[in-house]
Amino acid sequence: MKTYGILCFVLALAMFAAPVASFDFSRFSAENVKENLSLFSESQKEKARDSENKDTVRVLQAASGNVTEVGTTEYLVGCLACEMPPSYSEEALKAQAVAAYTNLMRLKETPDGKAGNADITDDTGKHQGYYDEATRREKWGEKYEVYAEKFIAAVQAVQGQTLTYDGKPITAAYFALCAGRTESAQTVWGREIPYLQSVTSTGDRLSPDLQSEIQLSPEEVREKLAEEKEVSLGDDPAGWFGEIQYAESASGTAAKITVGEKSLTGQQCRALLGLPSPAFAVAFKDGAFHFTVQGKGHFVGMSQYGADYMARQGADYKEILAHYYPGTTLEDA
User: Which of 59, 170, 294, 328 is the most exposed place for a label (fewest CB within 10 A)?
Assistant: First the structure.
């Protein structure tokens, strides 16, 4: 019995000595011990702060101008709720979660200044959307618990996974719906990005929302185009829009269009006029401009409708991401 007690004492002493062994006893004193314990405490605090910073997101709310801090999981659930319908397939939601997290990581590593002191803004014109819990409850109503469970499961399944190119988080652009083919960043934004090229998205053509008709009066068009100072419109509205030059990719995107003798890209024209996408045709008849538009969004990166279609055909989120962001690598945290 005495031997057993001695053995327990020796083991306890060894467990105590292990962490203390890292202290510097060459200058043993009360002050020295206090200093080492303080350093140990600060080191632990620093690690805790680093962990906390990685697991929280500061979101600039465009409507109020306030910055709210939330956990990463909560942010991604709120981003998915804003950016993708809850009716979409689980694999499509996973792909969207990876894209959203990748954009967040890119902005955390290399801020672009659009969110001020925050990590990201919920302004979809600058970064990506986000619905807080109160907004989600309001939008989902009695389906809140069901949808919340679905979105949380999708986020947790891919938590920490990031799309990279040359070892850095990519610009994981995405949009709602194209006309059967996405478009390159070069054509839409005038900037070559290797992993944002034109790829097929054939399922999009099955969408009931593929085509829309927009009618604008000459007065509305003149008012909207007034933002572009170099566009000069004559007295005859029939001559305001020239022939459209479409992109060679066959995405339906208007690469160039002459407006009041100034050449604009389809994306510029879309932004000025508030059209659903840069894939459009225009005709002036019965005293008004009639725009026939296909798809919704800028057409660069992942088509959300296309992602859901791929998922319904059996593709998993990795296959979806590899298709819409060719040449990228999916990395775990």
Answer: 328
